[in-house]
Design goal:
Elements: E1 2-7, E2 15-25, E3 28-38, H1 45-70, H2 76-116, H3 128-151, H4 156-181, H5 186-213
Antiparallel strand pairs: 1-2, 2-3
Helix pairs in contact: 1-2, 1-3, 1-4, 1-5, 2-3, 3-4, 4-5
Keywords: Ion transport, Iron, Iron transport, Membrane, Transmembrane, Transmembrane helix, Transport, Vacuole
Subcellular location: Vacuole membrane
Organism: Arachis duranensis
């Protein structure tokens, strides 16, 4: 006979399950606890959030910039330069923003631990350097997708079509990967990312085209 007992060790990010094997030996019940670690997906939140958001932002913001400029400038060189500028500026912005945000969270949680006299658990606090690096790298990876898609296509209409198609596929992939790693609904998460990406590219392209027509 086996019973399962769940126990929390005052850490909301971790949980333990003990399998209690009850064996009868000469009329005496012997309890042998077997500790089983249960993986908490919330532990992935720090790097997963930064990586997924960075990749999606790099992909979508760079593609939208390229589409917007492509609405008024049809040469491939202008579009690629716009994408490169978007990649560099966006990666720096994401890294700095993530660093400041996570460091603020670190300070708050560390101050709370000091008040509770529990400063030995500093390794459980969020790492701003890890979050900033993950965000910048992920942004760059995402931004490379539309850049590589447009780099070798000279025809304007074909280039726009290929960029939209490749970005759409990448949005589905990034949305699906985030859903799988975070144990979220796969189809719903992927479609939400894809539809949001389409809207961003369409609005950027349309408004830039309009601005070009009115001579702004």
């Amino acid at each position: 006979m086996a019973d399962t007992i769940a126990e929390s060790d005052n850490n909301p990010k971790s949980s333990k399950v003990f399998n209690m094997d009850l064996e009868k030996q000469e009329g005496v019940v012997v309890v042998t606890p077997e500790e089983v670690e249960v993986f908490d997906y919330a532990k992935r939140a720090q790097w997963l959030r930064a990586a997924v958001l960075g990749a999606n932002d790099g992909l979508l913001s760079t593609a939208s910039l390229m589409m917007g400029v492509g609405a008024v400038k049809q040469d491939v060189k202008t579009m690629i330069l716009t994408g490169v500028a978007g990649l560099v500026a966006g990666a720096c912005s994401m890294a700095i923003g993530e660093f400041v945000s996570v460091y603020s969270q670190y300070d708050i949680e560390f101050a709370q631990m000091k008040r509770e006299g529990n400063t030995q658990d500093k390794n459980k606090l969020p790492n701003p350097y890890t979050a900033a690096t993950a965000s910048a790298v992920a942004f760059s990876v995402g931004a490379l997708v539309p850049l590589l898609a447009a780099a070798f296509i000279k025809d304007y209409k074909v280039r726009l079509t290929v960029v939209v198609a490749v970005v759409s596929l990448a949005l589905l992939v990034f949305g699906g990967v985030g859903a799988v790693l975070g144990k979220a609904p796969f189809v719903k998460s992927s479609l939400r990312v894809l539809i949001g990406g389409w809207l961003a590219m369409a609005v950027t392209f349309g408004l830039t085209k309009l601005a070009g027509h009115v001579g702004v």
